Amino acid sequence: MTVHNMPIDDDILDMPGKKKKKRKSRLPKILTDAEIKLLFDTIPTRSFTAVRNRAAFDLMLYGGMRVSEVCDLKNSSFYWADPTKEIDGRENSTISIIGKGDKERKIGIPKNIRADLNKWREKQPKEAEFFLCTHLGKRITRNYLYAALKRYVARSLLKVADADKDSYAGLKSLHPHIFRHTIATKMQLAGIPLPVIQQFLGHSNITTTMIYQHVSAIDVISAQNKFFGQSQ
Question: Does residue 22 lie in a domain region?
């Protein structure tokens, strides 16, 4: 189930001959920092295939990209700024993404994944059109990335002791879209405004982005303590 058809709370409506059942709200699943580290530590950093796959997962997680958007990226989608100009803020390296409905958006290339992306650029076949490609320069597919992710998850979980399995439960149901949920939630918790997250993810409607407005029990209790403490 994707973020675009995520169930939301719905009142029971009385209709002639029909009743609309109330559906429960479901928060998007996300990865913990420990799960992210375990997974990425499992992906090798030398072979052609592993370096390419790591770059793909970097873009899904830290670039908030849909798996189809990652597959469709071309080398021409990237603008690599002069590093000396980036340091003083005159330029930024960017990616132009063609999303749903052929809508284009532009995001910065996160600094924490540039080393991985540059490592992949060094291994790319010359004259390749697609950024993430096979040895022959052909576009990789969604199904391939789904299968590759499943393999890396299985390998990563082999490193976990049975007593610690519950701490990494999120990896068991991992699929590419959870990367997107994870970075969006982290941005929201960091205080990034929803309209900015909406643009970053390429949502056409901000109500879709609003599912990332998580309110935890700790947040509620903290707010209560602050409010009632001030009102006494």
Answer: no
pLDDT in tens, 75-118: 999 999 887 787 777 778 999 999 988 899 999 998 899 999 99
Per-residue pLDDT reduced to its tens digit, 49-82? 999 999 999 999 999 999 999 999 999 999 998 8
Rounded Cα gap, residues 198 and 205, in angstroms: 8
Residue 207 amino acid letter: T
Residues paired with residue 18 on neighbouring β-strands, in sequence order: 15
Residue 31 · residue 174 · CB < 8 Å: yes
Of the candidates 164, 44, 169, which has an alpha carbon nearest to the alpha carbon of residue 116?
Answer: 44
DSSP 12-70: --EETTEEPPPPPP-PPP---HHHHHHHHHHS-SSSHHHHHHHHHHHHHHHS---HHHH
Q: Which two tokens stand for residue 22?
A: 């109330």
User: Can you tell me the distance from the alpha carbon of 117 to that of 178, in angstroms, rounded to the nearest whole number?
Assistant: 21
Nearest to 187 by CA among 40, 28, 51: 28
Radius of gyration of the CA atoms of the chain, in A: 21
Q: In the chain, how many domains are there?
A: 1
For the chain, give the longest Cα–Cα distance: 71
Q: Rounded distance, CA 23 to CA 41, Å?
A: 39
Enclosing H/E stretch for 11: none
Does residue 7 fall inside a structural domain?
A: no
Q: Which residue range forms the structural domain that includes residue 53?
A: 29-227
- For residue 210, give the CATH number of its domain: 1.10.443.10
CB 47 within 8 A of CB 181: no
pTM: 0.79
pLDDT tops 90 at residue 142: yes
